[in-house]
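User: Reviewer 2 asked us to show a designed sequence for the structure in our supplementary figure. I'm pasting the structure tokens here. Could you produce the per-position amino acids so we can include them in the response letter?
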């Protein structure tokens, strides 16, 4: 049987097959996590302690997920 094409019905999670082939999601790779953590922290670098706490509260209220 030729394995180049395998029928998958609608709604199938294709990432399962990709992971079997050795693919790793960017959200599971430490280099990408470090990269996004760096960019998420950029606005905080020039804030004093009170402004930092207010910024975190705004982000929490807006339900923005941050990488810690």
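Assistant: Here is a per-position design you can include in the supplement:
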């Amino acid at each position: 049987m030729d394995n180049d094409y395998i029928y998958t019905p609608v709604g199938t999670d294709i990432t399962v097959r990709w992971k079997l082939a050795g693919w790793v999601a960017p959200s599971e790779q430490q280099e990408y996590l470090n990269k996004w953590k760096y960019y998420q922290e950029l606005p905080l670098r020039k804030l004093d302690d009170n402004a930092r706490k207010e910024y975190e509260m705004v982000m929490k209220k807006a339900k923005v997920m941050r990488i810690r």
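For the response letter, you might also mention the following. Helices lie at 15-20, 30-41, 49-61. The chain has a mean pLDDT of 80.
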